Amino acid sequence: MSDSQQPPAIGPAGDAATPASADGPATAGSAEQIDSWKTTLPCTRAEAEAIDAAGDVAIDAVLMTSETIEDDRETWRLDAYTEDRPDAAMLAALRALVPSAGTVEPVIEPLTAADWVTMSQAGLEPIAEGRFVVHTSAHPVAPPPGGRAFLIDAGQAFGTGHHATTSGCLAMLDGLADTPFTNIIDIGTGTGLLAFAARHLWPDARVTATDIDPAAITVTAENMATNHVAAIDLIVADGALDDRITARAPYDLVIANVLAGPLVSMAPELAAIAAPNATIILAGLLDTQRAQVVAAYRACGCSLEAADQRGDWTILRLTAGAARYVPSKPIDPKGRDGWALDL
Question: Most buried among 11, 154, 155, 270, by the most CB within 10 A?
């Protein structure tokens, strides 16, 4: 799920220092030179997705949202990172993004340069799905026999493998290892992890990875070099309407790990780039959103083959129709319902 997607959690719940007021003394980090500041406020999942989908929030801060309690859709948090201690105007701007926080006092803590590295990897133990294991620099691990390890550090893009949607997609890809694919696309690639897994499973296939966020494509390129992954074509694109994507169609494996709203909105364009009987893997949706997502793709000739529910989240595997889908009318990207916000 990219950056119209939630970035991964950067630390366990409760890792914040003692709350401090905007004009009070620092309560931690004074022994080392302060490099930046972190401000934390509670929020709901809907607020988190609105922040992540906006992409152009006019606040001079790095914003990250994450689950505070796993699979609890109403217990999330917003972490804002700033170069200077947040003033009253900054705090007011952050509060405006998360009205559910009400009068909750923000947690403000100073960070040293070393804190960035420690916090970004904290709590991210290696995860294993089938033949794949995903780890951070802080927790190196060898691959299982006959398997593949990927080093994916938490950072600017979503998809370290630790979220149920990403790990579920890895498991679903692993289960398809004996199915031949020749032309694969990963829409909303984030860190590139799912595209890397596809490249490992189908070394002779053409693999394309796209994301609406240029930062995600930069991160994917860096992760390709780190993990010695070759021959993945990277494209910055909004959905599947880019000429470079349609020119390479049809694809016999389509992967999209984004949000339910975009998945529904993109149904015609994803179905249109899928080959007859192609496999389509969709993720980023809650199980309560499954019926609406499936209905959108069924209207485009696709059928549901399998679903993997992990907590509140569900990963879907569909098959495209026997004839290639042709949209009944041109797709207007500006008219996509639910694109910016989730359902």
Answer: 270
